[in-house]
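Chain entry —
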Amino acid sequence: MIRDAKARVDELSSQAKAKDDELRGMREKVETLERQVVGLEKVKEELEVEKARILEDLLVVKEVMRWLVTEGLSRVVEAVRGSDEFSDGVVGLNGAAEAARYHDGLMDGFQVRKDGLPLESLPGWSPDARTILTQRQDIFDTMKLPGIQTLPSLADQPDLKEIRDVLSLED
């Protein structure tokens, strides 16, 4: 009976040691999982910070787009319309049309052609009129506008401050 009891104690001792080893292994796994959770929480915090930064950037981009649509494009048109180059081109084209009698003579020209007569039959017709007008039109079509010329060089600016400065008219 003592032998049986001793055998039973040895068996229980062996089982206890196996359970202790199993428990130790489980504790190590729990510690590993806890470290992983801590690491994931740290990553989550970093992602939250990054998300906040991206949302801030998105707000800036939305503001830039709002400015571009509500003010920037109209300022480009106003800058072009108000430029000396554009005004000079319009004046030159208008002057060429006047000199070619296109303004006052346009209706007369339609009437003459309607009557089947050549344009040359108009009083004051100039054979150079079409050439002069075409030359002025070519100058107008190819003129360089300062704001439009400057904008492409600013395309890589990190923000719109430089572009806004170029397009800023009297606020």
Notes: The two ends are 107 Å apart (CA to CA). The first helix runs from residue 2 to 81.
